[in-house]
Design brief:
Elements (H helix, E strand, L loop, with lengths): L2 E3 L5 H14 L5 E7 L6 E6 L19 H5 L9 E4 L2 H12 L8 E6 L7 H5 L3 H13 L9 H4 L11 E4 L7 E4 L2 H6 L7 E3 L8 H16 L7 H9 L7 H5 L19 H11 L8 H12 L8 H5 L6 H15 L28
Parallel strand pairs: 2-4, 4-5, 5-6
Antiparallel strand pairs: 1-7, 1-8, 2-3, 6-7
Amino acid sequence: MSRLLQTKDPIEKTLHEFLKYLLKSEKVSAIFSLRKINKKGSVDYGLITDADNLDEIAPLHPIMPVNSGQLLARFTPVEKPIVAIVRPCEYRAFVELAKREQGQMDNFIFITFSCGGVFTLKSNAEDKVKKKLDDYWKAVKNAEIPDDIRKVCSACQHITPTNSDIFISLVGEENGKVYLQNDKAIKLLDDFDIETKKSAFDPQILNDILENRAKNQEKLFSKVDTKDSGLEGLIDIFGKCIGCHGCNSVCPICYCTLCDFDSFNYDYNNSILEKELKEKGAIRLPPDTIFFHLGRLSHMSFSCVGCGMCSDVCPADIPVADVFKKIGEETAAMFDFEAGRDIDEEIPVMIYKEEEFPELGK
């Protein structure tokens, strides 16, 4: 049974106090959190070992400069766990990487929270976020979808990873509530000077916002539907690709140590180019941009966590995240699979079943 921290303090103060306690009591090695690095609103992820530096952190700030699941996967084992405060899609991404032996769950104490979504990196770069924060937090408290967040955020329904160690209920809450979700978290804070009581998070508080997000998802998916147009439809969507591979670089689930598309196999090869020119009379440069996206789709789309990083960094404004979220969720549903839902839930491509999809025939 989970336990609820009994406090009337603002959630930021409560969070700061128990993180300070964890560092000073030496129960953890460090705190991993989003932090503000200047007064202009610039943010990055920081690893903090000195409690005096906790004043810099802004773990709930609605900006995601990278999907931190990708960063945490690089940490080597430590003697004492690291507290990582991450968004639901970041936590789910790390779970998927851990399944691929590219991260260790035992290395961390995960704190997650019900997420209202994040603003685009462009909005932050143009210094527009500060003016939107009051309206953003008002929408979160009212369980509404904030304006101007990433499109996939406005359609995301995976906002409560209550299987993390500590869960903070923000959406639909006036002040926020902190739930200790397992024995590890309860033991970690057993000497912390705040009373707790047995209580479990009630997901019904999210019914309205999830219903509205479902409607947004339907609209989002309808704009990238290529069921009738087939390959031509995909060419229309990905035809603007300039081959920068930025979407690949920021994707937390693109797990290959060396992507085949970044290897010498896809360097310009004169003999191949000459052969294709002879057959077709004209070819596109850079080559294989559509093949690149189709390759990524087939490789890892079912483990897409819908963080939206790929669309956010695309210089050609291709709705990469929309396509991957749509195809990924459809594929995962065929296997009753949800990316990042459970560390023990096996990835579909790593399971062999002698009989599968009998409805397709022999």
